[in-house]
């Protein structure tokens, strides 16, 4: 029995999944294609040379012409679309208080710019939220989790185009009105700062949509449009669901200076601002002063309309959500050294940390520090909505799966969250990433498993899809049952 007793009685314990990684049924019931449906799997032999997708129009067209769906695992996911009742029953058995899900925008507006929503798509999420509520599981719903309709990429050049602001606002109002009696917690954009690391996944524009040397301009202009879209969603949420809460969400990255050298410290500060810039705008309602010199130095001019500043100022989020998987080391440019792998970026290897099977540096204490940094800065409730360990799991002859490494990873992170709460941080919940094995965001692999629940499917889409409980299932069940006291 742990001595930890920090977690409040109403703490939201649960898990997090994304539509594009679990649902499948990419062409059923009127759903339109999303940007994730044309992302090809990275086979194990190609993993070391993997790059975050940033395709051209021709490459997307090639993917559209490829009818071998096995090459595009997010098209079939883990068949959550047809098996959600079975999976939610397992989440109930785990004791979940909450489940973070996303809505596939293309199920509601297949092309993104449609005049009327798709009723079959709306009905699916009605059924999903009803099933969660039936089991006493609070839905936390992300509006955009790398799910931009592909038509908005091909016809409008994604978020570089201001027209997407109103398309998104219409989509947000539509689902708020439809689910106002079923969903109280919302998130606008998943990992919105991802646009600086993965322009296609985060900003839905293609490599040939941007002139040479104009990428930074396109990324920050797209981010501005997403800030406006987020603010319009905040306004609509507060109007339509007065007792609802809506948050922003970022990749939670903490950047350590490589040494006490002043240049390393300044580099770390600037790298940290790649995270804080996004939360600064959405929680404070204006662009921070430090971006003025950055924009000037990089020749960036944000195109604004007269009402933009007021929209941002008057519609700030209620809470700040974050993912947390690893920390990073920042150093002045001339520094050489061994690099560590990462999801969206890599940095110098930290000699004080161990790493996952995929080379991500494991740093539970960094989570406590980062939570304190966020809360010191904003004094708004925080929500850890992604945290987990991607690893190879082995099924024993008797069907058991002994994932002590996952338990150890999660245990240490939960301990540090408890310490952050003792520090005074207002932390409202924790949703472990991938409570059921799903298609990897970064590589579209299945062998990179996060779940407490094993899914019998391989990287090539083969398998029975049978669900099995891992050792971590029973461990996390006890964590929730004891409200974090027994780890």
Automatic annotation (TrEMBL):
Q: Which Gene3D superfamilies match?
A: Glycosidases
Record's InterPro entries?
Answer: GH, GH_1_N_CS, Glyco_hydro_1, Glyco_hydro_1_AS
UniProt keywords, alphabetically: Glycosidase, Hydrolase
Could you confirm whether the keyword Lipid biosynthesis appears in this record?
no
Task: Tell me if Lyase is a UniProt keyword of this record.
Answer: no
**The organism's place on the tree of life at top rank:** Bacteria
Q: Name one GO cellular component term.
A: cytosol
User: Which family would the database say this protein is a member of?
Assistant: Belongs to the glycosyl hydrolase 1 family.
Name by which UniProt lists this protein: Glycoside hydrolase family 1 protein
């Amino acid at each position: 029995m742990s001595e930890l007793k920090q977690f409040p009685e109403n703490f939201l314990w649960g898990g997090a999944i994304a539509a594009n990684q679990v649902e499948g049924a990419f062409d059923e019931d009127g759903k339109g294609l999303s940007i994730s449906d044309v992302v090809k799997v990275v086979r194990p032999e190609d993993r070391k040379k993997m790059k975050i997708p940033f395709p051209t129009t021709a490459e997307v067209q090639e993917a559209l012409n490829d009818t071998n769906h096995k090459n595009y695992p997010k098209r079939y996911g883990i068949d959550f679309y047809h098996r959600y009742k079975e999976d939610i029953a397992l989440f109930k058995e785990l004791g979940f208080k909450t489940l973070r899900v996303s809505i596939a925008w293309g199920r509601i507006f297949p092309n993104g710019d449609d005049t009327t929503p798709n009723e079959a798509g709306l009905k699916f999420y009605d059924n999903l939220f009803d099933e969660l509520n039936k089991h006493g599981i609070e839905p936390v719903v992300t509006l955009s989790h790398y799910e931009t309709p592909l038509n908005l990429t091909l016809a409008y050049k994604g978020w570089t185009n201001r027209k997407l602001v109103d398309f998104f606002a219409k989509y947000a109002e539509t689902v708020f009105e439809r689910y106002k009696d079923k969903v109280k917690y919302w998130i606008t954009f998943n990992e919105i700062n991802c646009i600086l690391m993965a322009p296609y996944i985060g900003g839905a524009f293609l490599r040939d949509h941007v002139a040479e040397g104009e990428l930074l301009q396109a990324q920050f202009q797209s981010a501005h449009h997403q800030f406006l879209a987020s603010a319009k969603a905040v306004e609509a949420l507060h109007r339509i669901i007065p007792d609802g809460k809506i948050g922003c969400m970022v990749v939670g990255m903490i950047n350590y200076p490589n040494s006490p050298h002043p240049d390393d410290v300044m580099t770390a500060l600037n790298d940290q601002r790649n995270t804080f810039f996004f939360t600064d705008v959405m929680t404070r309602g204006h662009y921070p002063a430090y971006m003025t010199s950055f924009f000037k130095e990089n020749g960036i001019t944000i195109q604004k309309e007269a009402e933009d500043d007021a929209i941002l100022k008057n519609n700030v989020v209620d809470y700040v959500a974050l993912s947390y998987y690893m920390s990073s080391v920042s150093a002045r440019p001339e520094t050489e050294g061994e690099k560590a792998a990462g999801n969206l970026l890599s940095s110098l290897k930290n000699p004080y940390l161990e790493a996952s099977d995929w080379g991500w540096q494991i740093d539970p204490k960094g989570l406590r520090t980062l939570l304190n940094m966020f809360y010191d800065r904003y004094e708004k409730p925080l929500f850890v909505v992604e945290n987990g360990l991607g690893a190879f799991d082995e099924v024993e002859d008797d069907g058991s799966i002994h994932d002590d490494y996952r338990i150890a990873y999660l245990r240490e992170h939960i301990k540090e969250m408890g310490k952050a709460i003792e520090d005074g941080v207002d932390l409202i919940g924790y949703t472990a990433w991938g409570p059921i094995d799903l298609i990897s965001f970064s590589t579209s692999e299945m062998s990179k498993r996060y779940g407490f629940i094993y899914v019998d499917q391989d990287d090539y889409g083969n398998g029975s899809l049978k669900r099995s409980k891992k050792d971590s299932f029973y461990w996390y069940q006890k964590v929730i049952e004891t409200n974090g006291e027994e780890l």
